[in-house]
Amino acid sequence: MRDQVREIMGSRVVEPLAAELAARGASDADLRAEVLIAMAIGVSLTRGSGTLPTLAGTPLDEVLAVLEPAVDALQPRGSS
User: How much is the pTM?
Assistant: First the structure.
């Protein structure tokens, strides 16, 4: 099962994102893509489950505003 999820995530999410990051000049595009995906999954799971109540109760636009600097930092310099 893990291998199937890895294949699906890789081909449908990580690879296209890594390709975009590479096109923007990221030499470590695979790592950056995987970190971005891990952040998105982690935030989604903890919001949905209520594990972290402040995160779960904060409007999405506010969560995205807090995440924006981290997402920007994972993009190659000169792009945003």
Answer: 0.85
